[in-house]
Amino acid sequence: MVDENVIRTRSSGISAEGVKDQYADGKAAKVWEIFIGDKRSRTDNYRNFLVNLLKQHGCKRILDVACGTGVDSILLVEEGFEVVSADISDKMLKYALQERWELIEEANWLTVAQDLGHLIGDGFDAVICLGNSFAHMTDSYGDQRDQKLAIANFERCVKPGGLLLIDHRNYDNILKTGSTPSKCIYYNVRTYALVINQHMSDIKTSVLYVSGKPSQVILDYSISNGNETSEFRLSYYPHKLEIFKRMLEEVFGKKAKYNIYGDFKLLTEVQNPGFYIHVVQKAE
């Protein structure tokens, strides 16, 4: 059981210098697909938003820098895109490799442009970093320098006119309410309900403050898989919408085009979304 009064480091595993792999001990990776489902569990809104957006911009060659167990990469491959899949976690890549074996790389966001230099060429049509993955990167120095470096690396991987799709939970609301929404827009309602009823015991939300400022949002998971129950902790940096937007603008510049969606809808069409999806089109 998790002691409510103690915040422990999730994992000491580091698959590449600079960014800790929170899935290094294999506990979360082993049961992650039970929680998130597979490519068939993606909602129609999610699939249609992602696929249609990429096709509308003529994107063919995609870099998934947070492929995890490969759900999004496989979805895009089956939709006809050419996909290079990368992740910092070798444990997560193990499960991705069980689904597809080609063009999967281990890469660190702080060095991804160098790690994948042999594949970048003139740049990818789009780089995607979805599923609240980017929030796993902690702010070790208090000024988000690592996050800015990672985004700058993503920018180097995008060709002129290409896209970056990057998302994060609505941490503004999580910090305000102290809770994480139980429903997730990425998963089918029926599938997610089955996961909750059959496999999920508990998801507990905690917020860690350092010097009066929110430093981490910690989710304690208890997931059952048959007779086996896995308990693990994942931590996230609580990105605030306006600050994250300014960080993207700082890296991509004023000539880039920016759009923000809430739960795959325009912000004018949704109130208090669970997720924000940033779409940046790099200047020509």
Automatic annotation (TrEMBL):
Coiled coil regions in record: none
Enzyme class of the recorded protein, top EC level: transferase
Location within or outside the cell: Cytoplasm
Primary localization class, coarse: cytoplasm
Keywords: Cytoplasm, Folate-binding, Methyltransferase, Phosphoprotein, S-adenosyl-L-methionine, Transferase
GO biological process terms on file: methylation; one-carbon metabolic process; protein homotetramerization; regulation of gluconeogenesis; S-adenosylhomocysteine metabolic process; S-adenosylmethionine metabolic process; sarcosine metabolic process
Gene Ontology MF terms: folic acid binding; glycine binding; glycine N-methyltransferase activity; identical protein binding; S-adenosyl-L-methionine binding
Protein residues bound to S-adenosyl-L-methionine: Y23, W32, R42, A66, D87, N108, W109, L130
EC number(s) from the headed UniProt entry: 2.1.1.20
Domain of life per record: Eukaryota
Catalytic activity: glycine + S-adenosyl-L-methionine = sarcosine + S-adenosyl-L-homocysteine + H(+)
UniProt-listed InterPro entries: Gly/Sar_N_MeTrfase, Methyltransf_25, SAM-dependent_MTases_sf
Family (UniProt): Belongs to the class I-like SAM-binding methyltransferase superfamily. Glycine N-methyltransferase family.
Assembly and oligomerization: Homotetramer.
PANTHER family according to UniProt: GLYCINE N-METHYLTRANSFERASE (PTHR16458)
Name the record gives this protein: Glycine N-methyltransferase
Organism field: Lutzomyia longipalpis
